[in-house]
Design a protein that fits this description.
This protein is 47% helix and 13% strand. It is built from nine helices and eight strands. The strands form three sheets. It has a three-stranded parallel β-sheet, with helices on both faces. A three-stranded mixed β-sheet has the order 3-5-7.
Length: 261
Amino acid sequence: YYPMDLREQVDHVGTALRQMRNVIAAAQAAGVERLVYTSSLSTIGRPSRPDELATEADWYQSGQARHPYWEAKLVQEQEALRANANGQQAESPLSVIVLNPTAVFGPADIKPTTGQAVLIALRLRCWLSLEGRVNVVDVRDVAAAHVAAAERGRPGERTILGGHNVTIEQFVRAIAAAAGLAPPRLRLALGWLYGPAWRSEQFVSRLFPHTAHLLIYALETLRLGGWFDCRKAQAELGLCPRPLQQTLNDTVAWFRQHGYI
């Protein structure tokens, strides 16, 4: 479940929890022994000290985000881990492994979500960047880690699938290089953008109540996100992130080839 509008948070949380329970019940009914659940970086909280990298031990605290996506993902992941604990006591044990990809980019992004960041940067000719930090990982590396998790992941635990810790400016510079554009010339503070984003969200929501609107979600992702310690995935799942520039070169080339830009 991927809530993108700002209607009542309790509705989003209820839907997210119901859908996760449906998946778990279906897996148990079918006799599935191992379930690999793709969660989100949003359930990883800020580390105890700001100069540290966030790890699997850091949890998002309910109420920190101004968008229902974070609460929905939190209850889903908690339910998945609860199912693992309960499944070990059942007649037909169900093992649940949780994976937490960071910001995923790469080719074949047919219905862009995080890929929208690349498309927006290209439409703006990469002249603008924002403050903030992000961890970027290639979708092909994330896919390989999922296969490894199905084979040898540790049930009842979560694992961050991340790649490169970079600033937003470094990220936009890499997009510009991939597209043959000049590097960004202006960097904005996030605080400047919340007012226009809220007004835009409210306007669109009144006219198109069921339309996804990404501005607040994107700003909250940057505000609450950061850099991650990905050593667990490297050690246990063999995650070996390919170079950031290769990921963005392939991403931009695929978008161009398929008419997105």
